[in-house]
Write a structure and sequence with these properties.
Helix content: over 70%
Largest sheet: none
Number of strands: 0
């Protein structure tokens, strides 16, 4: 497969759609303990600063190709974490 296609938004969309179906709420839920751990996941302060920096560069139109790939990776990871946390909320007695 062409390496340009692997990092394209189309592939990222496919990745997210496949993951969404894979961890669909109709499948078994997380234990409350695992759900609680997943709900605590967050980006480190260093990653949050990097995302803010990349976002500012994107707004200014000054991202390099490498930075575009990096921001795309942050977006994909964020989607994955959000999907897992949404499923984890379903497994907690008192959703956070």
């Amino acid at each position: 497969m062409n390496s340009d296609l692997l990092s394209s938004p189309i592939v990222a969309t496919f990745d997210t759609a496949i993951l969404t179906r894979t961890i669909a709420p109709v499948r078994s839920q997380f234990s409350p303990e695992v759900a609680g751990e997943i709900l605590q996941w967050d980006f480190s302060p260093e990653d949050q600063r990097e995302m803010a920096n990349l976002s500012a560069k994107a707004s200014a139109g000054t991202l390099t190709v490498e930075e575009e790939a990096k921001i795309d990776s942050y977006i994909r990871v964020s989607h994955i974490v959000n999907l897992l946390q949404a499923k984890a909320r379903l497994a907690t007695p008192h959703p956070v």
